[in-house]
Design brief:
The protein is of the alpha+beta class. The protein is 24% helix and 34% strand. It has four domains: 213 residues, Spore Coat Polysaccharide Biosynthesis Protein SpsA, Chain A (Alpha-Beta Complex); 123 residues, no CATH class; 147 residues, Immunoglobulin-like (Sandwich); 134 residues, Immunoglobulin-like (Sandwich), CATH 2.60.40.10. The strands form five sheets. Strands 24, 25, 26, 27, 28, 29, 30, 31, 32 and 33 form a ten-stranded mixed beta sheet that branches. Strands 1, 2, 3, 4, 5, 6, 7, 8 and 9 form a nine-stranded mixed beta sheet that branches. The N and C termini lie far apart (79 Å). GO terms for molecular function: hexosyltransferase activity.
C-alpha cells in the first residue's frame, strides 16, 4: 500500500453513541478512504466504544484499533496513534465530534499548495458547544501565529504535517489531564513555517455531549488547569522574546483561560482548596500579566485581574458571577469617557482606578447604509448610526476619509436627522439618521481628493463620547456591492468605489491606486438610422460610469470628439452623423477610442473593441454617390467614409461589374 495522505487519530473513552457518527464521517470523506489510514485508540472504555470500533475496523482495511488501559486523559491515546501513523499528514479527531464530508480533501489541498505545517479547518459548535470563530472569517493560505488569530484556537483538532511533528519530537504531555493540547499546539504554531486556515467550508463539528462527558467538564476543573497553564507560560517565556508579540499570546490565556479558571473555581466546594488554587493562579498573574498583556482586554477581565493581583478572592468571584449571570452593568459617562459600573466601582475600600472600568472602546457602533449614490463629483451617503446604549449620532459627528498608506485624513461634518425607530441590529438603541454629500472636488480642505485609497469611516459622537467605525459592511440590498469605476472630471480621472475583502467596508480608489481603470470598451451593435441615410447608431458598454468622449481619428491626424455618457450599468449610445451637420465625420478612414471626459490632455483612451459584422450604406450627396462602411477586427473598430467614383456608380446602376 502506498503512503496514505492522512492518518486520522481518534482517541476514544466511553464515547458511545457519538463515536459512530465520528468514524462514519471519516470513512465517508471525499478524499477517499484509500488515501487515509484511521487509527482509533480505545482508552479503556466500559460502554461498548471499543467493540464498536472493532466492528468498523472489520469492515475497513485501512482502519486499526488499539485497546489499552485507561490513561486518565487524551494525551496518551493521541501519542499512541501518532507513533503508529504513517501518513504525510496527521489529523487528531475527538471521538465526540465529526468531520464535514470534504474537510480532509480541502485541508490537504491547502497544505500541499502552500507547504503548510499546520492547517486549521473552520469549526462549528453543536448542541451549544462554543468554538473559536475569529480566525475563520476568511481563508488564509499563509499566515503565522503573530499575524492572525490562530493562537485563539489551541485545540489539536487540526491537520499537521507529520514530518514536522517528528522533527520537533512533539508529543502530548501525559501528565496533564486537561489542557494538554495547549502546549502541544502552541509549540507547533511557534515552530511552523506556514500556518493555513480553511474558512470557506465547515470542516469540524465539535459536540457538547448531553451527558457532560467532555473531558473539560470533569471535577476539580480549576486545580486541573494550573499545570497546563504553567507549562504554557514557561513555553512562551522560553520561546518568545519579551515584548508585544509575547504579550499578544499571553493575552489569550489571561483572558480566555482566566474566565474558564474562575468559572470552575466558583464550583469548588472546598474553601481551603479554593483559596490555595486561587493563590497559585495569582502567582501567574503577578509573574506574567503585565499592563501590555491587558491592553485591549474588556473592562470585566481587567477588573478581575486587578482583584486577583491584590489577592481579593471573594471580590474576584463576585465579578465573575456578575458576568456569568448576565447582570446589567450601568454606564457612567464623564468627560468623553464611559465607565462600566461593575461591582466595586469607586468602592472606597478597594480604590480600584477608574481606568480599569473604562468601557469606551467596548461600546459597539450600530450603523447601516441605506444609499450610496453619485451626482458628478458628489458622493451621497445616507444611513443611520448609534452608539450602543448611549443613543443616535449627534452634532459633532464626522465622515472621515483616511488615505490608507499615508494616513492623511479629511473630516467632514455629518448632521443628524430626526431620530428613527430602533430596528434589529441596533441593540435596542434608537439610532439617528444621517444624509451627507461629499464633494470629492473639494474634500481635501477645499481641493480635489488626491490619488490614493481613501477608506470611509464614520466618527459617531454621542453625549460627548466619540467612536469611529468603518461603514459599508451593513447596507441595504439596494446598495450594490459591485466595484464601480466612475469618471469624475473634477479629479482628472477615475474614482473606483468598492467594498474591501473580507470585511466589506467602503473605500474610494482615486486615480487607480489599486484598481486600474478599464483598458477597453465594447461596441455591441451598429445600426443605420432609418430616417437619416447618413447616420449610424452605435451601442456599447464599458466597465465604468460617467462622461466620455467617443474619439474618432483618421490617418491624417484629424480628430473629432463626440460626447458620450455611460449609464449606471455602463451602457452607452452614440449617433454618428456623416459628412453633414454638427459633429459630423468628414471623408476619411476613422478609428475609434473612448476617452474619459476629464478635460486633460494626457488622459489615456480606452480601445474600442467589437465583434461586428461589416455593415455599409451608399447614398447620393449633392449629386454624387458616397458610401460608408463600419467593421471591426482584433485591432479595433473602424469606419470608412468616401466618395464613390462616378464610373463605378454608373456601372453598378446598370447592373455591370
Amino acid at each position: 500500500m502506498s503512503q496514505p495522505d492522512v492518518s486520522v487519530v481518534i482517541g476514544a473513552y466511553n464515547a458511545m453513541p457519538y463515536v459512530v457518527k465520528c468514524v462514519e464521517s471519516v470513512l465517508e470523506q471525499s478524499i477517499g478512504v484509500d488515501r487515509l489510514e484511521v487509527i482509533a485508540v480505545d482508552d479503556g472504555s466500559t460502554d461498548g466504544t471499543g467493540e464498536e470500533l472493532d466492528r468498523f475496523a472489520a469492515r475497513c482495511p485501512s482502519m486499526r484499533v488499539v485497546h489499552q488501559e485507561n490513561s486518565g486523559g487524551p494525551a496518551k491515546p493521541r501519542n499512541v496513534g501518532l507513533d503508529l501513523a504513517t501518513g504525510r499528514y496527521v489529523f487528531f479527531l475527538d471521538a465526540d465530534d465529526w468531520l464535514g464530508a470534504e474537510a480532509l480533501e480541502r485541508m490537504v489541498a491547502m497544505a500541499d499548495a502552500n507547504g503548510s505545517d499546520v492547517v486549521l479547518g473552520k469549526m462549528v459548535g453543536v448542541g451549544g458547544r462554543t468554538v473559536p470563530v475569529s480566525m475563520f472569517r476568511h481563508n488564509q493560505p499563509k499566515t503565522t501565529v503573530f499575524d492572525s488569530n490562530v493562537y485563539w484556537a489551541l485545540g489539536p483538532t487540526k491537520l499537521f504535517r507529520r514530518a514536522f511533528l517528528e522533527d520537533l519530537g512533539l508529543r502530548f504531555d501525559p501528565r496533564l489531564t486537561v489542557g494538554q493540547d495547549q502546549p502541544f499546539t502552541a509549540t507547533a504554531y511557534l515552530n511552523a513555517s506556514v500556518i493555513s486556515v480553511v474558512a470557506d467550508y465547515d470542516c469540524y463539528y465539535a459536540v457538547l455531549r448531553d451527558d457532560g462527558g467532555n473531558n473539560t467538564s470533569r471535577p476539580d476543573g480549576a486545580l486541573r488547569r494550573l499545570p497546563f497553564l504553567r507549562a504554557v507560560f514557561d513555553l512562551l517565556t522560553r520561546e518568545v522574546e519579551e515584548g508585544p508579540k509575547r504579550d499578544r499570546l499571553l493575552r489569550r490565556h489571561f483572558q480566555s483561560d482566566q474566565r474558564e479558571f474562575l468559572t470552575h473555581l466558583l464550583a469548588e466546594a472546598d474553601p481551603e482548596q479554593r483559596a490555595a488554587v486561587f493563590e497559585e493562579f495569582r502567582g501567574f498573574v503577578r509573574a506574567w500579566c503585565s499592563e501590555g498583556v491587558q491592553q485591549g482586554m474588556p473592562a470585566a477581565d481587567r477588573l478581575r485581574l486587578w482583584l486577583i493581583r491584590v489577592g481579593r478572592l471573594e471580590e474576584t468571584l463576585e465579578v465573575m458571577r456578575h458576568t456569568l449571570e448576565g447582570r446589567t452593568t450601568p454606564l457612567v459617562v464623564e468627560k468623553g469617557r464611559v465607565y462600566g459600573a461593575y461591582p466595586f466601582f469607586r468602592d472606597p475600600e478597594l480604590s480600584v482606578p477608574d481606568e480599569v472600568f473604562d468601557v469606551t472602546g467596548e461600546l459597539p457602533v450600530h450603523h447601516h447604509v441605506h444609499e450610496v449614490s453619485w451626482n458628478g463629483p458628489r458622493l451621497r451617503l445616507r444611513g443611520r448610526a448609534a452608539l450602543d446604549r448611549l443613543g443616535g449620532l449627534a452634532e459633532g459627528s464626522e465622515l472621515v476619509l483616511r488615505e490608507r498608506e499615508s494616513r492623511v485624513e479629511h473630516r467632514l461634518p455629518v448632521a443628524p436627522l430626526p431620530a428613527a425607530e430602533p430596528v434589529d441590529g441596533d441593540g435596542g438603541t434608537v439610532p439617528a439618521e444621517f444624509d451627507t454629500v461629499v464633494d470629492l472636488s473639494r474634500a481635501a480642505d477645499g481641493a480635489p481628493l488626491p490619488r490614493g485609497l481613501w477608506d470611509v469611516s464614520l466618527n459617531v459622537v454621542v453625549q460627548g463620547v466619540s467612536r469611529e467605525v468603518r461603514i459599508g459592511s451593513r447596507r441595504s440590498p439596494e446598495v450594490s456591492a459591485k466595484r464601480q469605476h466612475r469618471v469624475v472630471p473634477a479629479l482628472g480621472g477615475f474614482v473606483t468605489a468598492y467594498y474591501t475583502q473580507p470585511y466589506s467596508n467602503l473605500t474610494l480608489d482615486v486615480d487607480g491606486a489599486m484598481h486600474k481603470p478599464p483598458a477597453s470598451a465594447e461596441v455591441g451593435s451598429a445600426e443605420w438610422a432609418a430616417q437619416k441615410r447618413a447616420a449610424l447608431l452605435l451601442r456599447g458598454s464599458v466597465d465604468a460610469v460617467g462622461p466620455f468622449l467617443l474619439r474618432a481619428r483618421d490617418g491624417d491626424g484629424r480628430t473629432v470628439d463626440l460626447p458620450v455618457e455611460a449609464a449606471e450599468d455602463g451602457s452607452f449610445t452614440r449617433l454618428l452623423r456623416l459628412l453633414d451637420g454638427e459633429e459630423a465625420l468628414p471623408f476619411g478612414r476613422w478609428s475609434f477610442s473612448l476617452v474619459p471626459a476629464t478635460g486633460g490632455d494626457q488622459v489615456r483612451g480606452l480601445a474600442l473593441r467589437g465583434s461586428l459584422s461589416a455593415t455599409g450604406r451608399r447614398w447620393w450627396r449633392r449629386g454624387r454617390p458616397v458610401y460608408a462602411k463600419l467593421w471591426a477586427d482584433r485591432r479595433g473598430v473602424f469606419l470608412t467614409v468616401a466618395p464613390v467614383r462616378l464610373t463605378s456608380a454608373v456601372r453598378r446602376a446598370v447592373g455591370l461589374r
